[in-house]
Amino acid sequence: MVHTHWRKVFMITLAVLLLLPLLTPAERSARAADDGAVLNAGFEDGTAMGWYGRGGMEELTATAAAAHSGSYGLEIKGRTQSWHGPQHELTPVLEKGRSYTISAWLRQPEGAPSTAISMSVQQSTYGKDNEYKALTSQTISADKWTELKADYVLNDSLDSAAVYFEAGSSASASFYLDDVVIQPTPVKEPISIQKDIPSLKDVYAKDFKIGSALLVSEIADPNGPDAQLLEKHFNMLTAGNELKWDATEPKEGQFDFTRADKIVKFALDHGMEFRGHTLAWHSQTPDWVFHDDKGNLVSKEVLLQRLKKHIDTVMGRYKGKIGTWDVVNEVIDPSGPNGLRNSLWYQIAGEEFIEKAFIYAHEADPNAKLFINDYNTEEPAKRDALYALIKRLQAKGIPVDGVGHQMHISTSYPSTAAVDAMFSKFADLGIQQEVTELDMSVYSNDTDSWQTFPEDQQIRQAYRYRDMMNVFLKYRDQITAVIFWGKDDGNTWLTTFPTVRNNWPLLFDTQLQAKYAYWALVDPSKVPIEPKQAKASQGTAKIDARMEQEWNRSARIPVTKPDGTEAGSFRLMWDAKNVYVLADVNDTAVNGKDSVTVYVSNGKDAKPDSYTMQRSGAQNNAKWAYRSARTDTGYRIEARLPVANNQLGRELAIDLVLSDYKGNQPTRIYWSDTTGAQNSSTANYGKVTLEQGPQIAAAVKGTPTIDGDVDTTWQKATAFTTSRQVVGTGGSVAQVRTMWDKDRLYILAEVKDKFLSASSPNAYEQDSIEIFVDPNLGRTPYFEPGDDGQYRINYKGMESVNPADQKSRLKSVAKVIPGGYRIEASIDWPKGVTAPATGQWVGFDIQVNNDDTGNGKRDTVMIWNDTTGQSYQNTAGYGLLQLQ
Fold first, then answer.
1. Could you point out which of 50, 266, 398, 826 has its C-alpha 20 to 30 Å from the C-alpha of 137?
2. Distance between CA atoms of 107 and 141, rounded to whole angstroms?
3. What is the band of 422 on the pLDDT scale with cuts at 50, 70, 90?
4. Is the distance from CB of 419 to CB of 475 less than 8 angstroms?
């Protein structure tokens, strides 16, 4: 009996020991809770563990192939929409007001192409399911597991929240998900705003109102730090979503002002003005507005009745509380009928819906200021179409009080000159102007994505904000408000548009602390210097104070005053032993002491060389030389400065200072180091890269017939070749000729290509040419709308254009010829700009795409000038055409 007893004890003990590592799902969750995790989805029980498909038709299966660790992971397939994917409720497991870290591991199935997958949260505030907060995004491949990780706070105002994963760029991609863990983040010090810094509204009190958009969730705690920041810095508010049609009247006659009332009350309680956004818009307007119960478009009469009732109800509720309204929003499309967007509004009621909207709004509140609001109004074509619409409305007596410029901009686009021209255009209309939705993306394209905000980009953004504010101040007599589209980087739409990624577009960071961008608008001396960057083209200049053709190969570099106005500009060239400078100074008040000083550093430890050149002087010896000459706007200095050992790719530290004398007292204007420390430190000198420079060709005047044949007109045009390699080795090349007249640029390209292929579904991988044109020679790192374009024609004559709205400018004919193919094309000059003239320079490039084997892949790319591979979005590397 004793022996049997101990054997039973041994067996029981052994069983317990064997079972210890084999934790059940419940035990796993319990252990996760012990580690602080509120959710740990490892899918080890062979189920989806509460995850479900957002679209309802996705297949979510726990499989071994999807395991990042353990035995199982979750396979997601059967997606048919980009927003389809796995989702899990957060509300039951998260504590409101607490910050959590959400992490997950993802991978593509074997053999699947890489795709971007984002982690986001769908939130419901006061019963409204229209808030989607992007947390993070990464490109996921089949080669390795990738972790997505981000912090999230379940705000007090949220009714519900759910985390989800989607592949926004692919409607059908399958992917694996495993080890999703949600843990409370370490408790941090409560967020506290900086109460001792200047208030933006006070800094600009004599100029215009400073406003912010917000969502009602930001003021859930009316005494919290978000509310405090709004109260301290802003004297005008606007609702980001709460006054749009889908929020106020989601179903016909069923109005809901719950959220809007909270925001308006907050503004009034804190002495702020309120701006209503928006009454009539093509987006976020429910489908019932345009359709009857059978799905047919309603009549114009019914649509206008619905519009009037909506405006009467919404404006009537806030009469005397909201003093400014965006009556119609984003109605302009330069390529549309009469310059208007071909929306359902327009399709049903034509331009009349705009007229009636203003009439109804004025009747609903005669004291309210009524605005028309749009984006990209700095683009010449869109600007002019909007101007023309307002003129038409004014001619009919329609009560338009102002124009709103949204100003969703970036650190590279648009230019301050374009914004200046925008405000100037509307100055004669006798109406107010406002900046209504200002934010500044830190990206210059739709593909870059950073996990953190680089210091140099923070500084760049700050100076860009300063430069834009200087333009606004120039028009302070017309601009009544500057409104930011959000108060802080934690509350911005740009984390989900145009793609899911981090972005930092506003003046305060996610902890509500002032960024460099804020200080640039309040006290720029607190912003670190941003050393300028420039390029010098290889070449040699004759020192005679004249601008020879060779100088056009170098980009014009502006020198600006602190207020943003231009004091002058310069260009740089180089050879093995010298740097050449051509400086044009805007200064008509002649003083012989006025001067240009150039500083050049040959190394970190070397004392910089400095060369001061007076407007009335000259120098010519074996070491260095300069000449000066009077110009219509001031004076010009051309100089040769000794710099040894120059070679392609070298980076020089250079600065330039303009001295403007009044009597014996100079005012200094600095190109790069604005502290004036050029003699003691080279740290903030500009960085100048020595490059080969663009190629130059001539476009002769003439008007060929676009028929694919080489008529005699082309005989006077000189040919050049696409001889620079971008992709692959060797490949097809083109002999290119160009011509021009007052209406168009003409291109004739004869491509040597023995094997022609268009087997790829991607136009850029088919045998084709791509023509790049920068008519205003802006040399920008982005495409200036209405000006720059990419025009692709394959050997079969199929066209594709970027941007797509520029397609009407292209006319082309393709012909297969012995040994290859010929493309003859014309591209209209941009609308709304001065006609080209003899002697004018145009940015131009042309490349040849070649699928050499017919496998649907582009094997080689040859181009005339720009070898960066960025010609489709960056005009800075184009070659030059001179119109002759």
1. 50
2. 6
3. very high
4. no
Q: Does residue 374 carry a catalytic annotation?
A: yes
Closest CA to 318 of 354, 361, 283, 286: 361
345-352, Cβ contacts within 8 angstroms, sequence gap of 24 or more: 345/280, 345/282, 345/290, 345/303, 347/297, 348/290, 348/297, 348/298, 348/299, 348/300, 348/303, 349/300, 349/303, 349/304, 350/300, 351/389, 351/392, 352/300, 352/304
d(CA 38, CA 181): 8
* Cα–Cα distance list, 599 to 209, 581, 686 (Å): 42, 11, 10
Residue pLDDT, tens place only, 268-318: 999 999 999 999 999 999 999 999 999 999 999 999 999 999 999 999 999
pLDDT for the residue numbered 155: 72
Q: Which residue out of 437, 489, 530, 765 is catalytically annotated?
A: 437
Taking Cα atoms as reference points, which of 88, 84, 90 lies closest to residue 56? Answer: 84
Q: In terms of residues, how long is the chain?
A: 884
The single residue of 226, 231, 249, 330 carrying the catalytic annotation is 330
pLDDT for the residue 872? 87
pLDDT band at 251 (very low <50, low <70, confident <90, very high): very high
The catalytically annotated residue of 178, 273, 374, 550 is 374
* Tokens coding 266: 């907050």
Across 203-220, average pLDDT:
96
Residue 602 pLDDT class (50, 70, 90 cuts):
confident
What is the rounded distance in angstroms from the CA atom of residue 321 to the CA atom of residue 761? 56
* Residue 156 among the catalytic residues: no
The answer to whether 448 and 411 have CB atoms below 8 angstroms apart is: no
The b/e string for 76-98 (b: 16+ C-beta within 10 A; e otherwise) is: beebeeeebbbbbbbeeebeeee
